[in-house]
From TrEMBL:
Keywords: Flavoprotein, FMN, Oxidoreductase. Belongs to the FMN-dependent alpha-hydroxy acid dehydrogenase family. InterPro entries: Aldolase_TIM (IPR013785), Alpha-hydoxy_acid_DH_FMN (IPR012133), FMN-dep_DH (IPR000262), FMN_HAD (IPR037396), FMN_hydac_DH_AS (IPR008259). FMN binds at residues 89-91, 118, 150, 178, 252, 274, 310-314, 333-334. Residues 10-384 form the FMN hydroxy acid dehydrogenase domain. Gene3D superfamilies: Aldolase class I. GO terms for molecular function: FMN binding; oxidoreductase activity. This is FMN hydroxy acid dehydrogenase domain-containing protein. Glyoxylate binds at Y36, Y152, R187, H276, R279.
Amino acid sequence: MANDHHTAPPSLALCVTTKDFEAAAKTVLPKEAWVYASSSAASGLSLQSNLDDWSRINFRPRIMRSVRLPNPTRYILGQPGSQPFFVSAMGVLGEAHPGAEPLLVRGATRKGLHIVVSTASTKSLEEIMKAHLDEQCQLGNQSPSKLAFQLYVPVDRNLARSLIRRVKAAGYHSLWITVDTSTLGKRTAARYLQAQEAVDQGGQQTVPEAAAGNAFGPALGGRPVPGSLDPGLNWEELAWITDEWDGPIVLKGIQTVEDVKLAVQHGVQGVLLSNHGGRQIHSAPSALMTLLETRTYYPEAFDKLEIFVDGGLRDGADVLKALCLGATAVGVGRPYFYAMAAYGIEGVEKCTDVLAEEVEITMKMLGVSSFDQLRPEMVNASRLLNEMWRPDIWWNKSKL
Ligand SMILES: Cc1cc2nc3c(=O)[nH]c(=O)nc-3n(C[C@H](O)[C@H](O)[C@H](O)COP(=O)(O)O)c2cc1C
């Protein structure tokens, strides 16, 4: 459990892997913030399989292929980015660092990364965009970074429409609708903390003090924010959202090949295969398993829309495994939360450097100098394929 008192983290120079940011954050974060970031649904199975499954795939590296200058540029929805990874949507970043979302965005912009900004941000979406534009200005508009917006569709559709209009007016380039959150998952560690606080205060339920002024304060205690998540959301609603937004749309939180197919049929530009970092349904498939399922049963999808993956990616090698299997790019969540919590903007930059270096050295040793040379046969996914869902047992493939 994290400390209740702020202590100095180890020197940033000692952060050699993304895991080191986690250990450092644990030493500096107040307990509520640590629990908010690290917690997951129920017993943690969904989170654990995200983490484990990347390590159950091996590469099949090729040699002597002249790989002197690998090019890390990757396009996401038509926008070039400095790397094949982006920062996944995370809410309430004011709990990680007083600089909150603007600080994360500045750090990522310096590094040319795309960032998905959460509906549940501590700061307004306009303020976050301003930080990005200010940073761009200081960089002479040389950064390829773009901001995308993650949307939780509020129950009140008028509010939803006005929110989408604000996002558009502010200049966000794509809308990532979170579709795995019909309700908030049962975040066990947050529940214990909340229960302990209630017991300590003689039965009174409280919102952690630091978050009390934030509309998304309750999220920190693992409780749904009234009106912000709608179990009534359905596929038909994509029509009005598409009309209102009039730009690229990605569905975030797809967990089966059937829903990838529906996303294609509904004409969205991308899907983010994700189990929300293991925070939503207990016993979810890992993001990687859903990628394998899609690769196996509906490979046409990769030509019809862009397929992103997030959850448990902790090494540049994991990023390349996803790309071998056809992902356009991957999202990284907690490592950025932890890096920012422990080291502020330098942490955000270093976390990017760590992953970028791992991507580069792995590319070289894999025998590729550009991402379009990555192929499914460059990984051995047999172990996971053995455990993949099989339609032929009870299910007729023609239903897909
Ligand atoms: C602290 C935290 C806050 C998050 N907040 C949101 C959110 O507001 N909206 C959302 O769609 N996903 C949210 N997520 C899920 C992430 O977008 C992403 O799917 C997940 O973190 C990826 O897994 P990883 O943390 O293992 O990299 C959050 C995740 C974390 C860790």
